[in-house]
C-alpha cells in the first residue's frame, strides 16, 4: 500500500508538471484528490487493512495528499502569472489599423456635447465679466448642501430636494448652492464667483425632469451689494448667453438662503419665461461662512443650464441630454471647435 501511494504521488506530480493551463492542473489533481480520486480511495479503504498497517498508511496517504496540493498550487500560480505576463504581448489593439472591409466607420469625428458647449460659453462670459470659476464636489455633506444654507433638518424646503442619500450619510448635491459655502471657506471677501456643474435629484424622470442635470450658481459678496447690482450682472450675463438684448423682471419668491428672494423672468423672443432663482445672501448664510453680515452683503443666483440648452436648440425632452444617444448628439456639430 505504501508503495502504491509513492507511485500515485509520482504519477500526480508528473501530471501537474505537464499541465499547460491552470484548468489542466485542476484536472490532473482531480484524478488523485477528487471524491473518486485514487488517493481518496486509499484513505477510504484504510478500515479494511490490518490494524498495524492502518497508522502508517493513513499517515503516508495524508503526506501524499499534501504534497500533491502543494505542487498543484505552485504550478497553478506559475501558469496564471505566465498567462498574465503574456497578455501585454497578445492583448493590444492597433488603433491605426484600417477596419475590415464592409465595416462602417464614422469618419467625421466626435462632437462637443451640447451641454458642454453652453457650459463653455457661460464660463467665457463669466470670466469676461471678471468672475472666478469655482468647482465643488458632487458628493456633499448634509451641512454644505442644506444646513449652512439655512435649510435645517426639519425645514420644509428640504421637501423640494428629492435627495440621493449615500449609505455613509453623505449625499449627491441637489444644487450648486453648496459651492457658496465652499467659496466662503476658501477665503475672505470680496467674492465674485460662479460655479457650473452637475446636480442630482431623485426625480420621477419625464420630459422636463431628469435625475442628473446642470446648474450655474452665482455668488457675489462685497460691501454694500444691492439688488441693483444683482439685476445688472444677471441681465448682462443673460444677454451674452442668449445673444440678444433681453428684458428681465423680478417676482418675489422664497429660497431659505436668500432674503429677499426672487425669481427672475426674462423676455426672450417675445415671451416672458421664468428662468432662475436669486436674492440677497441671507445673513445666516454669511455667518455660517464666517463672514460678518454687518460689514458684508451679497447676492446669489442659480439657474438650470439644461433649460438654456433646450431653449437654444428647441429640444422638447430633457432626457435626450444625458442619453448618450449618438443619433441625438450628432446633430450638434456646428459648435465644435477645430
Ligand atoms: N439652489 C436653488 C435650486 O436648486 C436655486 C437658487 C435659488 C440658487 C436662489 C440661488 C438662489 O443662489 O439665490 O433650486
| Helix proportion | 40-55%
Mean pLDDT: 91
What is the N-to-C order of secondary-structure elements (H for helix, E for strand)? HHHHHEEHEHEEHEEEHEHH
Second-tier CATH architecture of the largest domain: 2-Layer Sandwich
CATH topology of the largest domain: BirA Bifunctional Protein, domain 2
Spatial strand order of the main sheet: 1-4-5-9-8-7-6
The structural domain count equals 2
Strand content: 15-25%
The CATH first-level class of the largest domain comes to Alpha Beta
Taking pLDDT < 50 over at least 5 consecutive residues as the criterion, the unreliable ranges are none
Q: How many beta-strand elements?
A: 9
**Tally of DSSP helical segments:** 11
Bound molecules: 3,4-dihydroxyphenylalanine
Structural class based on helices, strands and sheet pairing? alpha+beta
CATH superfamily of the largest domain: Bira Bifunctional Protein, Domain 2
Largest sheet, in brief, is:
7 strands, mixed
Span between termini: 81 Å
User: Can you tell me the overall shape?
Assistant: elongated
Radius of gyration: 35 Å
Describe this structure in words.
The chain is α+β, with helices and mostly antiparallel strands and 338 residues long. The chain has two domains: 2-90; 114-332, 2-Layer Sandwich (BirA Bifunctional Protein, domain 2). The protein is built from eleven helices and nine strands. The protein has helices at residues 2-18, 22-33, 38-45, 51-90, 114-128, 142-145, 178-186, 227-242, 283-288, 305-313, 326-329; strands at residues 132-134, 139-140, 171-172, 191-200, 212-222, 247-253, 258-268, 271-281, 297-304. The strands form two sheets. A seven-stranded mixed sheet has the order 1-4-5-9-8-7-6, sandwiched between helices. A two-stranded antiparallel sheet has the order 2-3. The radius of gyration is 35 Å and the shape is elongated. The N and C termini lie far apart (81 Å). The model has no long low-confidence stretch (mean pLDDT 91). The structure holds 3,4-dihydroxyphenylalanine (DAH). 3,4-dihydroxyphenylalanine (DAH) binds at residues 175, 177, 217, 255, 258, 277-279, 300-302.
